[in-house]
Amino acid sequence: MSTEQQRVGAPRRYLSRLTRGTLAVIMAGGRGERLKQLTEDRCEPGAPFGGKFRIIDFVLSNCLNSGIRQISVLTQYKAHSLIQHIGRGWGFLRGEFGEFIEIIPAQQRRGPEWYQGTADALWQNMELIRAHRPLHVLVLAGDHIYKMDYGPMIGFHVEKEADITVGVVEVPLERAREFGVLGIDESNRVLSFLEKPRNPPPMPGRPDVALGSMGIYVFNPRLLERLLRADAEDPGSAHDFGKNIIPQAIANLRVFAYPFEDVRSKAQHYWRDVGTIDAYYEANMELVRVSPELNIYDEQWPIWTYQEQLPPAKFVFDDTDRRGCAIDSMVSGGCIISGSRVSNSLLFSQVRVHDYSTVDRSVILPRVHIGEHCVIRNAIIDEGAVVPDGTMIGVDPGQDRERFYVSENGVTLVTASMLRAPARSGGG
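^ thats the sequence. predicted structure below, dont judge the formating
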């Protein structure tokens, strides 16, 4: 059975057997420091995205749509809202059929330390993983936005008789230092793996592109335990998959790269690392375009989430100088646009925009209230913020830096606590 056949979905029964026997372990404990104050009270996988979702909803939906029904979510940093979200929105799997999403808080199972790295997180929970008796373990990062059928990747892993398979994407060379960078041969066997190198090597014949790790790995369970045990016993290890496990495995094990691309056209599929303010902003704003690359309206690959019961969005007043409208924007349920103009923006649920205000090129998170006569441009307004009447954001970067965070690309991040605090200097 060829990889081509597997990817185009002909032998679905074969792939479904593989996915049914796979345990997905989602790494969802990250602090997300590059998201600045956006992760002040939440972990990165729990951050809102796309008008109604959380970041983790995308990887959870990928599992569900791939036929994977056994999922462990490893949490640690400020996990309350994430745990609450999963409990509310993802409790529909049937335990009597062997289906589950289990949330595993950090429990210091192997000593007094919290998770020291991604490998250590799995090692501390190896007993729980072993208890499920999986045929394969699929390790997933919980902080990326993409739609992926994991079945063909697991099929590729089996066909290659691989010990480890790494999901990979092509990334611009100037951004490659943010990723694990791989070198491969013509059969996709991994020859080198450099975690976030200062001078990343380009792909052969493509000087502007590098091959980057997606943070997705397929392991055989017994091998995984053996590798994790050896890593735990190494006092010099950072206990990280990218820094230690994968680079050390290359010499003696069969490690292969699985390209996340269209089988026929070889075009790379949509995948975004939203771990910086600018990347988070851009990925959200892409959804406002007429035909965004990420199709969240795809009925064949739904993105599941917690569905809060809210009334429809409402737009009121049609006076010459006070008209409630939204143009080239996404507006979620429970929003009221009262005598104000919203353009090229994404509004999450229960946002209020009051008279004579304008919101442009901005991402407004849930339950934000924007007062009258406000101007909001090129900004992210965090959940629950109350913007006072007459506030100007994104108009004068110098003034914004006195109170808020201004990114390298000029995106202003505003949180509720920033609005309550007195002006300060050096905010960006």
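The chain has twelve helices and 31 strands.
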